[in-house]
Design goal:
24% strand, seven-stranded mixed beta sheet
């Protein structure tokens, strides 16, 4: 089969590989739509997870089941499915502890384009198929379905990590696709005020549509000063970090009330240390909590998010700004994600 791969750090290209074989609990899927992610960019050009040789990229896809193992009970050849970016081993001890995304070791639930070939191929392998695939209903098109793989569950997990409650004042740092989903999730959770940090006009517009009550444009002054003014110096109850770098935590700590909580879902691809300002953290005693986590995977998660789309509670298709048609357009879409033109939020490639 053909696939688009990371050949080594800083280099990508098309390669040929054998079609994956499947075990009794696994499935083979033919993608019908895929989307590149900023994580792919960090992996290839920043070497964020170390060097990989001829590893097929991608972790966001919907597709058609081509084959299932003998022990797979709930899926069959021909089913239209969505597969989350994180595909845990559900019989692991980590899963039993409630941290399935770390099954096999820290971050090891993230298998696609990390420990094994990803989805930018003519076929891809899904482990633990009954636990890691969900039927994609006919009411949701392929392009929208791809937003279920990573952007929607990651943004929602940021809100879970921050433990946003009704009436909270919330700051969302970064309103790319994940941050926009965090804005939407904060609104669903009942946040009273949502301060969204970003500068691109299309992202600002969609953030407002999803429920942002204030836009913090960092080009107009520091985030800290703007939040101080908007909250009369009181700060915010919760922060979701969906963009930035290792220095972003300093801002989050500074604007957070004592007893507040930060939920980080930003992939820190560079830097050795996260910087926490001592005094603003209450000299270590300010009850300002930081929770950082990889999104949960799994079928149940997908089915619940699907229900939110079907009932009209959220429309993640608003994230899609660029559409391509054809398997050979994967490279173009990935490079678009690398170059990040101002009008880009999320590209999708329709393969069939």
């Amino acid at each position: 089969m053909k696939g688009f791969a990371m050949k080594k750090i800083g280099e990508t290209g098309w390669i040929e590989k054998e079609i994956p074989s499947i075990g009794p609990n696994d499935a083979l899927v033919r993608p019908t739509a895929i989307s590149p992610c900023t994580s792919d960019i960090h992996t290839v050009w920043a070497g964020a997870i170390g060097d990989r040789k001829d590893m097929i990229l991608g972790h966001e896809a919907v597709g058609i089941v081509e084959a299932v193992g003998s022990e797979v009970k709930d899926f069959k050849k021909g089913d239209r499915v969505v597969i989350p970016a994180i595909t845990p081993d559900w019989n692991s001890l980590e899963a039993q502890r409630g941290y399935s995304m770390h099954s096999g070791g820290m971050l090891s639930g993230w298998k696609f384009s990390n420990f094994k070939d990803g989805v930018f191929a003519e076929y891809f392998h899904v482990n633990d198929a009954d636990g890691n695939m969900a039927i994609l209903p006919d009411t949701i098109d392929d392009a929208t379905g791809v937003m279920l793989c990573d952007m929607m569950p990651t943004g929602f997990h940021g809100v879970e990590l921050a433990d946003i409650q009704f009436g909270d004042k919330v700051l969302v740092i970064g309103i790319g696709p994940v941050g926009l989903m965090a804005v939407a999730a904060a609104a669903i959770r009942g946040a009273s005020e949502i301060y969204a940090v970003g500068s691109r006009p299309n992202c600002i517009e969609i953030a407002k549509e999803y429920g942002a009550t204030h836009i913090i444009n960092y080009r107009n002054g520091s985030i800290e000063e703007q939040i101080e003014k908007l909250t009369d110096g009181k700060g915010v109850d919760k922060v979701v970090i969906a963009g930035g770098d290792v220095d972003t935590f300093a801002t989050a700590i500074q604007v957070l009330k004592p007893g507040g909580r930060i939920g980080n879902v930003n992939y820190l691809g560079e830097g050795d240390f996260v910087k926490i300002p001592r005094a603003e953290w209450g000299c270590g005693m300010g009850h300002k909590q930081i929770a950082g986590g990889l999104m949960p995977g799994g079928r149940l998660r997908m089915e619940k998010l699907i229900s939110l789309i079907e009932t009209g509670r959220i429309d993640p298709s608003k994230l899609i700004t660029h559409r391509f048609t054809g398997f050979d357009k994967i490279e173009e879409a990935l490079l678009l994600m690398k170059d990040k033109p101002k009008d880009l939020i999320k590209p999708v490639v329709i393969i069939e």
